[in-house]
Amino acid sequence: MLPPAKLRCVHVALHKVDFRKSHDGLLAECYAMDFDPFAGDVVFIRDRDCGNIIM
To answer: Which helix (H) or strand (E) segment is 55 a member of?
Structure first.
C-alpha cells in the first residue's frame, strides 16, 4: 500500500476526454494540462457525454 501523498491542489478539467484511453492515456492528459498526480495534484476528468467523472 502506498502512503498518502500531500494534497497540493484539486483541478477540474473543463474539456471532454475520451475514456477509452488507458490509464496511461489519462495520465498523459493530466501532464498535458501541466498537472502532476504523483506530486499531489487531484484531477477530475469528465467523459465525452458528460455522464461520468474520473478522479
So the answer is: none
1 is a domain residue:
no
pLDDT at 27 over 80: yes
The x, y and z cell numbers of residue 7, run together, are 494534497
26 part of a folded domain: yes
pTM over 0.70: no
Q: Is 45 exposed, middle or buried (0-12, 13-18, 19+ CB in 10 A)?
A: buried
How far apart are alpha carbons 34 and 51 in whole angstroms? 25
Cell 506530486, located at residue: 39
The cell for 2 is 502506498
